[in-house]
């Protein structure tokens, strides 16, 4: 009787054995923590996942260290967000020196928002004015995150087709999780005190577009606002009954507090770069909903 069961067990062990071999040898790199969340949900522990930008650091001004470049070079795939900070310059360098590393743009097929997002790039103001850059924060809305995660999944099954079935099953669970997050947020934002909010750095443009909200940033073209710009913002905030001011880690909070005090709003610290992507977005929706 017992012998009968040995056979399937042997195969399971063999199968698992193969997978843990992959784990030892292969690494995947992502730019930011929310990407690690999506990827871990798809691959489980089949791969080691390396996040390039450390927690608490702005990916928009971060420059990878040579040690990080080494890790990147050892990765099977580099999943870039798409249009974030160092990514494209480093992807070019990687392509030249390590053509074996597959580079995936996770923003592909996403309908991008152009022009409202600015960074202090070190370029002259004139140059800045004439370049319409895509807003890179595509992971901040469940509707765009769905495509974002699918881009990761597609790249994975192309590069590792033997495990396609395993990834497909996990990916469909991830999509369910994203859809659940989407419906929770939709529900929360249905009937709220004000559809407008203020944020220091405009990191929630896609959430605003996809859920009928209006985002106003304190930062003006990647820089601190002038007194006239502050006044204009305060006027808008009063007119639109704004009661939420978001600030992010790594950005100035002084002006946010000034604006909030002027309009009687509250300042909320958020982290759109949190690993727990779903929890943070739901928390943001709760704040906007005032409940
Ligand atoms: Zn940004």
Describe the structure.
The protein is an alpha/beta fold and 291 residues long. It has 2 domains: 20-112 and 139-185, Nitrogenase molybdenum iron protein domain (Rossmann fold); 191-289, Rossmann fold, CATH 3.40.50.1980. The protein is 50% helix and 12% strand. It is built from 11 helices and 8 strands. The protein has helices at 2-25, 33-43, 66-73, 87-97, 125-130, 142-159, 164-188, 205-210, 227-239, 254-263, 277-289, and strands at 27-30, 48-51, 77-80, 102-105, 196-199, 214-217, 244-248, 266-270. The strands form 2 sheets. A 4-stranded parallel β-sheet has the order 2-1-3-4, sandwiched between helices. Strands 6-5-7-8 form a 4-stranded parallel β-sheet. Helix 7 runs parallel beside helix 11. The longest helix is centred in the middle third of the chain and has 25 residues, at 164-188. It is globular and about 55 Å long. Mean pLDDT is 88; it is low at 1-24 and 121-127. The structure holds zinc ion. Zinc ion (ZN) is lined by residues 60, 117, 136-137, 201, 203.
Major beta sheet, specifics? 4 strands, parallel
CATH superfamily of the largest domain: Nitrogenase molybdenum iron protein domain
- Provide the low-confidence segments as ranges: 1-24, 121-127
Bound molecules: zinc ion
DSSP helix fraction: 40-55%
Which radius of gyration do the C-alpha atoms yield?
Answer: 22 Å
Strand order of the largest sheet: 2-1-3-4
The CATH topology of the largest domain is given as Rossmann fold
CATH architecture of the largest domain: 3-Layer(aba) Sandwich
Per DSSP E runs of 2 or more residues, the count of β-strands stands at: 8
Q: Treating each run of at least 4 consecutive H or I residues as one helix, how many helices?
A: 11
Query: How many domains is the backbone divided into?
Result: 2
At the first level of CATH, the class of the largest domain is Alpha Beta
Shape: globular
Average pLDDT confidence is: 88
β content, as a range?
5-15%
User: What would you call the structural class?
Assistant: alpha/beta
N-to-C SSE string, H for helix and E for strand: HEHEHEHEHHHEHEHEHEH
How far apart lie the N and C ends? 60 Å
């Amino acid at each position: 009787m017992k012998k009968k069961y040995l056979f399937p067990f042997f195969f399971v062990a063999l199968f698992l054995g193969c997978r843990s071999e992959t784990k030892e040898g292969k690494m995947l790199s992502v730019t930011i923590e929310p990407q690690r969340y999506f990827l871990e949900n798809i691959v489980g522990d089949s791969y080691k996942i390396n996040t390039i930008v450390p927690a608490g650091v702005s990916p928009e001004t971060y420059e990878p260290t040579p040690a990080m470049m080494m890790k990147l070079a050892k990765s099977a795939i580099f999943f870039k967000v798409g249009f974030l900070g160092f990514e494209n310059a480093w992807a070019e360098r990687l392509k030249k020196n390590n053509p074996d590393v597959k580079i995936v743009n996770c923003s592909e097929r996403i309908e991008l928002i152009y022009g409202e997002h600015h960074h202090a790039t070190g370029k002259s103001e004139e140059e800045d004015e004439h370049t319409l850059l895509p807003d890179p924060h595509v992971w901040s809305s469940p509707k765009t995150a769905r495509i974002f995660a699918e881009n990761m999944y597609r790249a994975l099954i192309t590069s590792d087709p033997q495990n396609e079935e395993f990834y497909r099953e996990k990916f469909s669970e991830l999509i369910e999780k994203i859809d659940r997050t989407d419906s929770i947020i939709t529900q929360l934002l249905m009937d709220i005190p004000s559809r407008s909010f203020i944020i220091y750095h405009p990191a929630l443009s896609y959430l605003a577009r996809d859920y009928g909200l209006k985002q106003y940033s304190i930062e003006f073209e990647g820089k601190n606002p002038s007194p006239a710009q502050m006044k204009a913002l305060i006027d808008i905030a009063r007119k639109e009954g704004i009661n939420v001011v978001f600030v992010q880690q790594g950005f100035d909070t002084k002006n946010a507090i000034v604006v909030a005090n002027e309009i009687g709003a509250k300042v909320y610290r958020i982290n759109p770069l949190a690993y727990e992507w779903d929890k943070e977005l739901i928390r943001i929706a709760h704040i906007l909903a005032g409940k």
